[in-house]
Amino acid sequence: MRKIILFALAVSCAVTRADGIVGRWKTVDDETGKPKSIVEIFKDGDQFKAKVVELINPDEPNPRCKHCPDDKKDKPVIGIEFMWDMKETKPGMEWSQGHIMDPKNGKVYRCKMHLEDGGEKLDVRGYLGFSFIGRTQTWLREKAPAG
User: Measuring CA to CA, which residue among 118, 137, 142, 131 is closest to residue 13?
Assistant: First the structure.
């Protein structure tokens, strides 16, 4: 029985690692529970980054990042790289050491993420200083369209 449980656990971890975090995710607002956007996480060298690819029911059409810092200021939100420098710190399970920006207010936070539900959910935590001073959003993996 113990071998079966260990085998099932190993298979579960292998499935999660194969999918990783690369791909499209639906972001869900942690305050309202409503979907906000579709983002794409991609690998660039040894780090992971993310950009906004679609907004769901935006307050205004084609919004710009009015409060964003530096070269992101006044850029269209769609296409903006809002997460950078993420590193895989626990292979196939956890990513951290990077930053995430809230395009709504331009604030930049430290970030860490981990997969849940066999890779179908991604818990994304933005925080200042210590991880316990922050907020977590759960993103949902977007399925590729059939066909």
Answer: 118
Tokens 């059939």 belong to residue: 146
Which residue reads 């972001």 in tokens?
27
Tokens of 3: 């071998």
Model confidence at 1: pLDDT above 90:
no
Q: Is the pLDDT of residue 121 over 90?
A: yes
Helix (DSSP H) and strand (DSSP E) numbers for the chain: 1, 8
Overall pTM > 0.70: yes
141 and 25 Cβ atoms separated by less than 8 Å: yes
Residues 6 or more apart in contact with residue 65 via CB below 8 angstroms: 72, 73, 74, 75, 76, 77, 80, 103, 106
Q: Given this model, what pLDDT does residue 145 score? A: 62
